[in-house]
Amino acid sequence: MQTIARLDPLRSALEVLRADGKVALVPTMGALHQGHLTLVREAKRAAAHVVVSIFVNPRQFGAGEDLDAYPRQLEADCALLAAEDVSLVWAPEHSAMYPQGYATNISVSGVSEGLCGGDRPGHFDGVATVVCKLFNQVMPDMAFFGEKDWQQLAVIRRMARDLDLTRPSADQIIGVPTVREADGLAMSSRNAYLSAQDRARAAALPRAMREAIAEIERGEAVAPALDRLKSALIEGGFASVDYAELRHAESLVCLDSLGQDPARLLVAARIGSARLIDNMGVHL
Ligand code: PAF
């Protein structure tokens, strides 16, 4: 497994990999956990070579967010990836991603509005911009993202469609179901911020979501079910709830009732110094 930090050697190494078969990209910000390794394994099933990018992208962190505190552990991450038979780790230095004078931004409207886009202004511009750059740098046949960041996946697919991207094309942007801890908490690098007590309490999030989904699926009104979900989180030890919404699973348009369209419950809530997000499907 090669670890590369600059563009010229990346391009040379990719030429060799591409001559040998399909290349799949798994973009990450490092601090890898089982969720990431599941993405890598899915990618490995689909392509001869897996490239994992590791880059803590400053443009997707707002003022006062956890950019400085974000866990960085390149050596440990590379050891995990080597064991997964990853061909190449693309860990660009800052100037390889954003050279002096860098001035371009990609902004995807619609799907990036509200939810995390409302609470974290500019966040999805940062994500779309860096992911577009990663796609152009690696030019993979396909790319794998966790469904845990459901809105992010919708933004990236919209961008790929709107900009006619071909490597990868929008239909080769693959979402992988969220990997959960034994108590149901979605795996996230940010779970590392939780104290032991808050970690135990955090399981209230998936539990309350499942309860709200059961209520909505048996025909109870959406708004009161979401209110009960928010109260359950506060009672369960969360400090605040940024949002709890039922949305169309693809367009992310707000839904106030369950119909034939695929629906998704999306929640962000704060506990201790962590902001946790999660989402689950809701079916008629
Ligand atoms: O999901 C992430 O880890 C990041 O948002 C991504 C897609 C790697 C872009 O920096």
Report on the structure:
The protein is an alpha/beta fold. It folds into two domains: 2-176, HUPs (Rossmann fold, 3-Layer(aba) Sandwich), CATH 3.40.50; 189-279, Pantoate--beta-alanine Ligase, Chain: A,domain 2 (2-Layer Sandwich). Helix content is 38%, strand content 19%. It has ten helices and nine strands. The chain has helices at 7-20, 34-46, 74-83, 94-97, 115-119, 123-138, 150-162, 196-201, 204-217, 222-235, and strands at 2-4, 23-28, 49-54, 88-90, 142-146, 173-176, 240-248, 263-271, 274-282. The strands form two sheets. A six-stranded parallel beta sheet has the order 1-4-3-2-5-6, sandwiched between helices. The protein has a three-stranded antiparallel beta sheet with strand order 7-8-9. Helix 2 links the parallel strand 2 and strand 3 (49-54). Helix 6 packs across helix 7 and helix 9 packs antiparallel against helix 10 (222-235). The chain is globular. The chain binds pantoate (PAF).
